[in-house]
Amino acid sequence: MQSKSLRNQDMTTGSITGKMLIFAVPVFFGSVFGQLYNVVDTIVVGRYVGSEALAAVGSCGNILMVFYALMMGMNIGAGVVVSQYFGAKDYRQLNRTVITLLIIATCITLVMVVLGLSLSRVFLQLLNTPANIMDDAALYLRICFVGLLGQFYYYVGSYILRGMGDSRWPMYMLILSSVINIVLDLLFVLQFHWDVAGVAWATAIAQAVSAVVVLIRLARHEHLDFSRGNWHIDRSKIRPILTIG
């Protein structure tokens, strides 16, 4: 039997207006908490580390945004495909889609991580990053790339869950990771004096925690079967995910 939270969000039956509102509210609050990452990082660095460190963190924003946009695009496409199979109650194809997505997401993200770690300074030089903040900016950017895999898993899991009508758990996980990020920011910067690296590691660890939680949530979902024999790529699912994304 479908869980209560998912049954209440079944968009294929009954009146759509109330269900849309119930679904949208957690998405809104999750987005608000999602902004806390950048806000807290900026406040902590600017107040307790210094202006050059703040400039170093800010100089990485556009570079990271390119990679985040690639992640978001693919995951939006995945959410559409997942919602189609879930709405049609075709759980076999749903399971194949989710597993295919997790496999290709892992491969693509690992490529991004390797590129990011190898070319961090090149990216910063292309943006004419000043020499006095180059070292801090490169360090911050490399650590952020290390945390990219955790963030990708969170995005993937969130869009899969939302595609199956569950917008609450992505919000819970984002709130949890935001709180962890705030605590670790203060701990690493004020107590350990890791400065820019501390802020970056706080974000990476918080993202890793959210990734673990979302994967556990998916593994326990009644309509998904992560048995060893199911772990293979269904090539027919790749094109619609990437095309829509």
Describe this structure in words.
With 245 residues, the protein is an all-alpha fold. Helices cover 82% and strands 0% of the residues. The chain contains eleven helices and no strands. Helix 7 packs parallel to helix 10. The two termini are 31 Å apart. 40% of the residues are buried.
Short description:
With 245 residues, the protein is mostly helical. The protein contains eleven helices and no strands.
Descriptive tags:
single chain; 245 residues; mainly alpha; 82% helix; 0% strand; disordered N terminus
What form results from the Cα inertia axes?
A: globular
Radius of gyration: 19 Å
Fraction in beta strands: under 5%
In percent, how helical is the residue content? over 70%
- Report the end-to-end length measured between terminal Cα atoms: 31 Å
Number of DSSP E strands: 0
Q: Structural class, from secondary structure content? A: mainly alpha
**Largest sheet features:** none
The multimeric state of the shown protein is: single chain
* Number of DSSP helical runs: 11
- Enumerate the spans where pLDDT stays under 50 for 5 or more consecutive residues: 1-8
Mean pLDDT: 85
Order of helices and strands: HHHHHHHHHHH
SSE layout and pairing:
Blueprint: H1 4-8, H2 16-34, H3 36-48, H4 51-59, H5 61-87, H6 91-126, H7 131-146, H8 148-163, H9 168-191, H10 195-219, H11 235-244
Helix pairs in contact: 2-9, 3-4, 3-9, 3-10, 4-7, 5-6, 5-8, 5-11, 6-7, 6-8, 6-11, 7-10, 8-9, 8-10, 9-10
